[in-house]
Amino acid sequence: MYTLDTNPIIYSINNEEEVVARLEALFVQAVPLYTSTITELELFSYLALTEAEGTLIEVFLRQVRIIPVFSHIARMAGDLRRSYPRLKSFNSAVAATALFTNSTLVTRNTRDFEQIDDLLLLPI
User: Fold this and answer.
1) Overall average pLDDT of the 13-31 stretch
2) 37 three-class SS
3) CA angle 112-104-18, nearest 5°?
4) Domain range annotation of the chain
């Protein structure tokens, strides 16, 4: 099981070959793939987002299960934020989503996440 951070999705949509290949390998495994509503927010909040990019994001997100940041995950994220003060709020919610789903976080942003105990990372 894997939780996708925002950056692998962006790089995939931008057709970065290495990332596309790595994500395709995950999809082929037929294991659950998750992302957070925070990632969805980040993807759609890009100021220069074109209609075509928005469509690509929508198509991509239909292939994964979007986990809402409900109260339990929000509290987990708050705990992470207190334990790791350098961790930004959005990243704490994404990390909490991965921990909640017992999945490995797929990210290029390993520096921000590697400090978190028990969080498995798949650098991409």
Assistant:
1) 91
2) helix
3) 80
4) 2-123
